[in-house]
Amino acid sequence: MRLAVVPGDGIGPEVVAEGLKVLGAVAPDIESTFYDLGAARWHRTGELLPDAVLEELRQHDAILLGAVGDPGVPSGILERGLLLKLRFELDHHVNLRPARLFDGVRSPLAEPGEIDMLCVREGTEGPYVGNGGVLRRDTPHEVATEVSLNTAFGVERVVRYGFERAVARPRKHLTLIHKTNVLTHAGSLWSRTVEELSAEFPEVTVAYQHVDAAAMFFITDPGRYDVIVTDNLFGDIVTDVAAAVTGGIGLAASGNLDVSGTNPSMFEPVHGSAPDIAGQGIADPTATVLSVGLLLEHLGRPELAKKVNAAVAFDLSTRDPKATLRTTEVGDRLAALSG
Ligand code: NAD
Ligand code: IPM
Ligand code: MN
User: Fold this and answer.
1) Cys-Cys with 175: which of 167, 207, 274, 331 at CB 3.0–4.6 Å?
2) What is the pTM of this model?
């Protein structure tokens, strides 16, 4: 097994080091190759993701990424030119983001109840495709467009994946989140696709919510969700809310999957480079460790994924809520518990 590692910017390298500690404890046979991509390289060479590097990345079984984004680089350069380029070039059409409230973790909700949802966010379409432009820039008559792209092929494959995950879970429930009352063109494509596929998965119960109402239910009644399917932008937003109610962004893991297996899938924490705490050694690496769990599951090593998840669950159930743990301390504990 060959893993490409892109530590990236800010706290990226700090949390990736701990993720690799845990990976090394459970799967010492996995060989890691590091790729220097991100703000430092851009400053040095002006490069974001050279074609030759992308081709090398394709030769791996999976990618582990920390985070990209830097206050010293204009907004969007690294995000678009590196992170989104990887997701688009490697056809990461499913962005899988589980959100579970672990025992011992404090939710900001007074009565969170049981929360265990799996958000299936579309990853290669929607308003993220860069289909837009600017007219009359820097004039009072500037016009900017950012057109959301939705294809029958793209929507079908992500909704199908959502149903496949839902049918394999105890509750077998799937919620489509969209804004079909306003985005009537794309909304209709998403609704019809869910309706059509539901005939193939009669055991799965289906619900629909507009994204504004969903944002409310994530706070007032998150326990209602099992599997969620949604578009790229709505999925970005609701998964930060899901992270917040399940103990914070420091615990939220994700996988960018090419379900067909043609390209390597990429695993990364949901959070960004956190420039406000970078370099202090206080970032929580748990999200990255849980992303390593998703990676192992994806590489066909579910028994190792279980070990990692059990280590996190045990650690969280015994963490002193008042103690501020250092990044490396959390990594050491999780590696010891996993190995
Ligand atoms: P962010 O996730 O980096 O930070 C939001 C807040 O959460 C900050 O207060 C931060 O300190 C805190 N936080 C994040 N991760 C944490 C962790 N592991 N432990 C403890 N606290 C943590 O989001 P932002 O501030 O909106 O974005 C910062 C930069 O990161 C931007 O350039 C943005 O584009 C980029 N970004 C990248 C990714 C990615 O690489 N996948 C994701 C989100 C944002
Ligand atoms: C995320 C991030 C990215 C996204 C940005 C940095 C491009 O917010 O992974 O959630 O919007 O997908
Ligand atoms: Mn995000």
Assistant:
1) 207
2) 0.98
- Torsion sign, CA atoms 96, 273, 332, 4: positive
Other Cβ atoms within 10 Å of 313 Cβ, number:
17
The enclosing domain of 46 has a CATH number of 3.40.718.10
Q: What is the pLDDT of residue 63?
A: 98
218, 241 contact by CB (below 8 A): yes
* Residue 314 included in any domain: yes
20 CB within 6 A, ligand 2? no
Report ipTM for this prediction: 0.99
Identify whether residues 6 and 65 lie together within a single domain: yes
Whether 205 maps to a domain, the answer reads yes
Q: So what's the pLDDT on residue 277?
A: 97
* CA proximity to 79, closest of 312, 304, 337, 273: 273
Determine if residue 284 is labeled as part of a ligand binding site: yes
Nearest to 312 by CA among 25, 113, 12, 85: 25
Dump pLDDT digits (tens) for 172-181.
999 999 999 9
In 3D space, the residue among 66, 37, 70, 32 whose CA is nearest the CA of residue 54 turns out to be 37
232-243 per-position pLDDT tens digit? 999 999 999 999
| Residue that is last in its domain, among 189, 221, 246 | 246
Which range of residues forms the domain containing residue 239?
A: 107-246
276 lines ligand 1 (CB under 6 A): yes
Within a domain: 101: no
Cα R_g (the chain), whole angstroms = 20
